[in-house]
Amino acid sequence: MGRAKKVVLAYSGGVDTSVCIPYLKTEWGVEEVITLAADLGQGDELEPIRKKALDSGASESLVIDATAGFIKDYAFPAIQANALYENRYPLSTALARPLIAKLLVEAAEKYGADAVAHGCTGKGNDQVRFDVSIAALNPNLKVLAPAREWGMSREETIAYGEKFGIPAPVKKSSPYSIDRNLLGRSIEAGPLEDPWTEPLEEIYALTKAIADTPNEPEYVEIGFEKGLPTHLNGEALDSVALITRLNELAGNHGVGRIDMLENRLVGIKSREIYEAPALLVLIQAHRDLESLTLTADVTHYKRGIEETYSQLVYNGLWYSPLKGALDAFVQQTQERVSGTVRIKLFKGNANIVGRQSANSLYSPDLATYGAEDKFDHKAAEGFIYVWGLPTRVWSQQNRL
User: Fold this and answer.
1) Could you give the residue ranges of the DSSP H alpha helices within 315-378?
2) Which one of 135, 166, 248, 383 has the lowest number of neighbouring Cβ atoms within 10 Å?
3) 342 and 203 in a common domain
4) CATH of the domain at 83
C-alpha cells in the first residue's frame, strides 16, 4: 500500500534526490513524482537538472526562478532583524528552506498531489525546516523523506540509482557537502569534521584569500530606506543586483568568511564554514544605522528580539505565530531607519567609518566638548542623585 499517489519532490539534481524518484515509486508505491528545482541564484545551469529529473523517472520537472522573492521576502526581513544565529551565522542557507517549502506546497496544490518529499537525512536542520514549514502552510499534506529511512550508504545509494538508469557521478566525489544560493555558501563534512583542521583555500568560491586581496582599501556606501538596502555607492539597485554586486565587492577583499562550531537543533555540534559577504556587510551596516536612528530603549530591547528571531529561523519556525509577532515589532522599528552607511573594505575586514541620516538622533551640540557645547552640566548632579538613590538606600541598610 503506497503512502501517497502523487508526490512533489524538492529536487537538486544530486544523487540522493535523483534516487528518491525511483525509490518513491518502487519501494513506496507512489504512482507519479513531480520534481521541483528552485533557482535561488545559486548559479547552476538548471536545464540539465530539469532533464535529469525526467530521465530519472519524474512525470514532470518544474524549475522555478524564485531569486527575487528570496531576497525581498526572506533575506531583507532578516537584515532588518539583524539576524545572526549564535551571533555569527547570518542564516544564508536556513532562509531558503521556508521558501522552498512554500513552493512545494503551492505546486502540490496546483497539481493535486497528496504529498511532498525532500532528500534530507535525519541528522541535519533542513529536515526540520522543511517538515515544520510544510505543516504550517498545509497541515493536510503528507511529508515523505526517503533518505531519512532508506538506510543506504552513499555507495549503496549510487548502486540503487544505477539499477534505474541514473548515472553515477562521473568525477571523484568531493568530500565536502556544499549548499549555495545568492546569499552565500555553506561548506561542511570531509576534513572539516575535525574542528582543529584549518580549511583549505580550495573550499572557498566567493571570498579571496587575504594574500590575494587588493593592497588598497575600497570604500562602499550602502543606502537604506526604512531598514531595506536600496542603494550601493549612490546607485539605486534592485534587491538581486545589490546583493550580487556587494558579494563581488566584499568578497574581492576577503570579507565574509565564517568558521564556527554550530549547535544544531537535533542536539549535535557541527563544524560549519560559511561565505556570505554581502549579507554580513548589510547586517553590520544596518545595525550601525539603527544605532543612529533608534532610541536607546528600542535599540536595547530589539537585541533580545533579534536573538529570538534568529533562533526561530534557524529552528525552522519561519511560519510560526511568534515569528509573525516579532515581524510586526521589527517592522514598526524600521520606520526611521533610513540613511547611508560608509564601509571600508580591506584585507578581510569591513569597518564602518561613517553614517548619516535625516532621522539622526545624534546631536553635535550635545555631544561636543568644544565651545559649542549646549549640554547643561549643572543638571547632572541632581540626575545622579535621583538615579543613584536606590543604590544609596540599599547600601545604608546593608552596611556592616
Assistant:
1) 321-333, 364-367
2) 383
3) yes
4) 3.40.50.620
